[in-house]
Design a protein that fits this description.
194 residues; alpha/beta; TIM Barrel; 4-stranded parallel sheet; 9 helices; disordered C terminus
């Protein structure tokens, strides 16, 4: 981080940003750096709106940027009834509706695509605004998760749950185990992990 700050002071960087820094990590970062970070890119979309993370970013003057604004197409994103119905009111797609929703909640979006027609569609979100009712409708889709996309797979092939813990019959392996630290906890300690 110090080298990045030196590059910023030398004029080699125009801004410094981070990715997937959730509230606790972001607060630590903001309290111990000399150069304020401009942006924090976090998984944010209609189903994971990152409200508490957004509040922390606003408090520390860090711009919230959406990673994966289309939820990587999961949860039937492009055919979601709430998004499609809302978009139909404005003659827009579910993708455009979500981009507009994020923009109206002060989240910067960068939608990934390689197709020219999708790029043009993604840019065509500044000619309408969602009503308060539509904003509430999309807000209701939030599942409240504050984690990056899971499941993750550890070297043993087990799938981790959302808390980063593998639930096994006799043992519970923490995420650290997948990094080779062999942090094995017996079943009697399983409740302490959750």
């Amino acid at each position: 981080m110090r080298k990045t700050e030196e590059a910023y002071r030398a004029g080699k960087r125009r801004a410094i940003g981070v990715s997937t820094f959730y509230p606790g990590r972001l607060i630590d970062l903001c309290n111990f750096v000399e150069v304020a970070h401009a942006v924090n890119q976090v998984e944010t979309h209609a189903f994971r709106q990152q409200r508490s993370a957004h509040e922390t970013m606003v408090k520390y003057g860090v711009q919230h940027e959406s990673w994966g604004p289309f939820a990587e197409g999961r949860k039937d994103f492009f055919s979601n009834p709430a998004l499609c119905e809302t978009g139909a009111k404005y003659g827009k797609s579910s993708a455009q509706t979500t981009l507009r929703f994020l923009l109206q909640t002060s989240v910067v979006v960068m939608a990934k695509t390689v197709r020219r027609e999708r790029m043009e569609e993604n840019l065509n979100v500044f000619d309408f605004s969602l009503s308060d009712e539509d904003m509430r409708s999309i807000s209701a889709l939030d599942e409240g998760g504050e984690h990056i996309f899971l499941p993750l797979r550890c070297r043993r092939g087990r799938v981790l749950d959302r808390a980063g813990i593998i639930k096994a019959e006799e043992e519970a392996y923490r995420y650290d185990d997948c990094r080779g630290k062999q942090a094995v906890r017996r079943q009697r300690r399983h409740s302490a992990l959750l």
